[in-house]
Design a protein that fits this description.
The protein has 342 residues and is an alpha/beta fold. It folds into three domains: 6-140, Rossmann fold (3-Layer(aba) Sandwich), CATH 3.40.50; 146-208, Helicase, Ruva Protein, domain 3 (Orthogonal Bundle), CATH 1.10.8.60; 212-341, Zinc Finger, Delta Prime, domain 3 (Up-down Bundle), CATH 1.20.272. It is 57% helix and 9% strand. The chain has a five-stranded parallel β-sheet, with helices on both faces. A two-stranded parallel sheet has the order 6-7. α11 crosses α13, α11 (212-226) packs parallel to α15 (290-299) and α12 packs antiparallel against α17. The relative contact order is 0.10.
């Protein structure tokens, strides 16, 4: 089966030659999906600014015109050379798997196909098809864990020639995660704030990115994880009064459930104890939040987490479709997760 694990991407991208012509990049972290697609595109000998060499398509364009993808794959660039076909938002299109399957064998060495998609289950037709196709590779993208966040911090701060104190690093980690592009954006904001100095303190982190709205969001999520309905009501009311975007609460709650899901699989699949998993994978969770996190880790199961993550993703979509009812929709969804935690 042509697929790699999430942590194997860095090794893949360092290879001098990658023996695949088509790539499916998918997962719940949309920012990481986009970032890895861009990294992969840089390995291809094409000019990304050249509209004749790099063809960008939405999945809806292919679905409405099934022959479009085959035409693009079979075309020759105006000035010759390699070509990149980049398809976005492919996850929910039911027609796309069959269309892509029909053209994979036609992809020559001068053409590369990159497909971006959201979170795909193992039963997804698109994912199953790509994993079984010899010239294709599936690349999953999951929310950053402590280790990958540490690497991201070191990468961004190292590029800016900045060092960070230990307590500042712990505080910074509590503000990151859930979406790679959002995390990288926060780090770039921090490096810009500290560009005139060599060392980053906890105060710098608070001043640059740790505002009151972030703290209120954390309070709300912790109340949900511990099943504290009264505290959820109070903290959510603070969110409303402070005009903090409700989307941040939903996104943060979803990110926390995703992280718990990754850690919980160590308990259910590898038969580890919760305390061992926390010590191995929860070292970078802020110490004030560890009790709520560990309590949720012990109580939730992977199957229940999967269902609630799907519901929260749908809730985010519903709040966008019905902006006037955003508060009511979000409150009801968060209350449900809180009751299940309790």
């Amino acid at each position: 089966m042509a697929q790699i694990k999430a942590h194997e991407f860095d090794g893949l991208i360092k290879r001098t030659g990658i023996p695949y012509r088509a790539f499916l990049i998918y997962g719940p972290d949309n920012g990481l999906v986009s970032e890895r697609a861009r990294e992969l595109s840089k390995k291809i000998d094409v000019d990304l600014a050249d509209d004749f060499a790099t063809i960008r398509l939405e999945s809806s364009e292919i679905s409405s015109d099934p022959g479009r993808l085959a035409d693009e794959i079979g075309s020759i660039g105006l000035f010759g050379g390699d070509r990149l076909i980049w398809v976005k938002n492919a996850g929910g299109d039911k027609k796309l798997p069959a269309i892509i399957s029909g053209v994979l064998e036609e992809i020559t060495e001068s053409v590369t196909l990159i497909i971006e998609a959201g979170d795909l289950k193992k039963s997804s037709p698109l994912r199953k098809m790509i994993e079984k196709a010899p010239p294709a590779l599936a690349i999953p993208c999951y929310a950053d864990d402590g280790r990958s966040l540490q690497a991201l911090i070191d990468q961004e701060l190292g590029a800016a020639n900045l060092r960070i104190e230990n307590d500042a690093r712990q505080l910074l980690l509590s503000f990151l995660g859930g979406d790679r592009l959002a995390s990288r954006g926060e780090l770039q904001k921090l490096t810009l704030y500290c560009q005139e100095q060599k060392n980053i303190t906890a105060e710098d982190v608070t001043n640059a990115i740790g505002d009151a709205s972030s703290i209120s969001v954390d309070e709300t999520v912790d109340a949900i994880l511990t099943g504290n309905i009264n505290e959820l009501d109070k903290s959510f009311s603070k969110i409303i009064i402070s005009k903090t975007p409700i989307f941040l609460v939903l996104r943060s709650c979803l990110a926390q459930l995703q992280q718990i899901d990754i850690m919980r699989s160590e308990i259910e699949v590898n038969k580890k104890q919760a305390g061992q998993v926390m010590s191995e994978m929860g070292r970078y969770i802020h110490f004030k939040r560890k009790p709520a996190f560990e309590k949720a880790l012990r109580k939730w199961t992977c199957s229940k987490l999967s269902k609630e993550m799907d519901r929260l993703s749908n809730t985010i979509l519903e709040t966008r479709k019905n902006a006037a009812l955003e508060e009511s929709i979000a409150r009801q969804a968060l209350m449900r997760v809180c009751l299940l935690s309790r």
